[in-house]
Amino acid sequence: MALNNTVLYDYQKRWLNDKSRFKVAMFARQTGKTFTTTLEIVLDCLEAEANGERTRWVILSRGERQAKEAMNEGVKRHLEAMGIVCEVLEVPFKEDTTINALEVIFPNGSKITALPANPDTARGFSANVFLDEFAFHQDSREIWKALFPVISAGWKLRVVSTPNGKGNKFYELMTDLNNNEWSRHSVDIYQAVADGLPRNVEQLRVGLNDEDAWAQEFELKWLDEASSWLSYDLIDGVEHSHAGLPFHYTGNPCFVGVDIGVRNDLFIIWVIELVGDVFWTREITALKRASFATQDAELDRVFAEYRVLRCCIDQTGLGEKPVEDAKRRFGEYRVEGVIFTQTNKMMLATLGKEVFEDKRLRIPQGDKALREDLHKLKKVTGANGQPRFVAERDSQGHADRTWACFLALYAASDVKQPVAPLARKPRRSQQLSEGY
User: Fold this and answer.
1) Structural contact between residues 56 and 110, judged by C-beta atoms closer than 8 angstroms
2) Distance CA 26, CA 161 (A)
3) Extended strands (E) in 100-191
4) How far, in Å, are 22, 124, 160 from residue 119 at the CA level?
5) Domain named Terminase large subunit gp17-like C-terminal: which ranges (predicted)?
């Protein structure tokens, strides 16, 4: 089948020319993995049509937007490049759901369907299947269990993605080299450029300005358990434009986490307000090289401006006296010191991660320093085989914001039900202070 001037690079040709029933590929970002696989799907349908046969393909994408992109920027674009007029139909997936599927139907009955991936949609067809960006699918193992019987009667399976850590089915498919049923392809950014893709590698790396993201999404490295405790996906999932703005405080109960820092590390106060069952960040105070008197004054202000039910403070090392002083000022029952033993750090980190995973927290949107701080904390295995948490120290601290956040969530962990808000709204508090 002629491709009508479609430019294909060598790595794309290798993928297209591989006729294996089961194929899995790991491609760097923006190297045309969806474009290439949808071309294979279109060519397969046209071949069936030319032979008087019909076939069916289902594209399962990570979300509705990605399904539309696969259909409109992939399938439809290829057909139009070949001079074939097509109409993309939007049809209900099932009568009792709100999920819509996009379809292209060929004259002889071959069909391509694209829709968001979940265990229910994976069960709904007998067809060849393309799992697009599979490492990023929620419930990837449940989708896999639902899907595999669908293709058991001789259908083909294509699985393509960039890496997304080791905790998903895509990682297993790419690394289980004892399973010879799968044909595996791997194209990092360097291979793609060597094969003709016009990209300035150094410009991309510098522009991204994130070594972890570069390693994973462009160099195709698996981030192991020593990688970030909070992934960027988890961080992205709880960002909100209204978080971190004190004037949005509605008078509900608040919980405070304080990470003590005097010299190189930051002193952080993180305030969260319980609204329904969601913890909204109302303020993050970050002070560098602030005196204990200044730190005490900031904590006094927070207690004056918010309805603080409980405050948890890092009591390790320099935190002994601030905790003692805070208990005297605000009461033993409102202030708790937490010594950062490895056991307590594991407890705090696990609690914090669960709240991020459940999306029960809202944090400021687009705050680069905050995002990097949250992403900085790493879990490693110590010499004795026990897990511990580490964070690289730089000018922005030592994951100080992260621990203050976890302390605030721990302060709120005993809350059983929402408490009625105040009758009036507190006065607007000042914006966070930084740069001392």
Assistant:
1) yes
2) 5
3) 100-105, 111-116, 128-132, 157-161, 182-187
4) 20, 9, 18
5) 256-410
Burial label for 58, CB within 10 Å (0-12, 13-18, 19+), is: buried
Tokens of 110: 């071959």
Give the position of tokens 């294979």. 40
Contact status, residue 121 vs residue 64, Cβ threshold 8 Å: no
In this prediction, residue 318 carries a pLDDT of: 83
For the record, the structure tokens of 254 come out as 């608040």
Higher-confidence residue: 325 or 124? 325
Amino acid at 236: D
25 forms beta bridges with 160, 185
Residues forming beta bridges with residue 337, ordered by sequence position = 313
How far from 144 is each of 101, 130, 134, 171, CA to CA, in Å?
19, 12, 10, 13
Tokens of 89: 């139909």
pLDDT attached to residue 382: 57
- Alpha-carbon gap, residue 259 to 251, rounded angstroms: 24
DSSP for 56-92, written as a single string: EEEEEESSHHHHHHIIIIIIHHHHHHTT-----EEEE
Distance CA 402, CA 364 (A): 13
**Predicted confidence (pLDDT) at residue 96 exceeds the cutoff of 80:** no
Q: Where are the chain's structural domains?
A: 10-217, 232-411
Report the distance separating Cα 47 and Cα 323, nearest Å: 74
405: nearest Cα among 166, 229, 189: 229
Give CA–CA dist 8/13, Å, rounded. Answer: 6
CATH of domain 232-411: 3.30.420.240
CA 60 to chain centroid, in Å, comes to: 19
Distances (CA, A) of 148 to 32, 60, 66, 322: 26, 13, 22, 58
Helices (H), 340-434: 342-357, 368-376, 400-411
Q: How far, in Å, CA of 382 to CA of 23, rounded?
A: 38
Rg of the chain taking only CA atoms, in angstroms:
26
pTM of the model: 0.57
Q: What is the pLDDT of residue 263?
A: 73
Quick one: angle between helices 342-357 and 400-411, nearest 10? 80
Phi, psi of 24 (to 5 degrees): -135, 140
Please give the average per-residue pLDDT across 56-76, as a whole number. 92
Residue 3 reports pLDDT greater than 60 = no
Closest by Cα among 162, 150, 156 to 119: 150
Question: What CATH number was assigned to the domain covering residues 10-217?
Answer: 3.40.50.300
Angle of CA points 399, 404, 408, to nearest 5°:
150
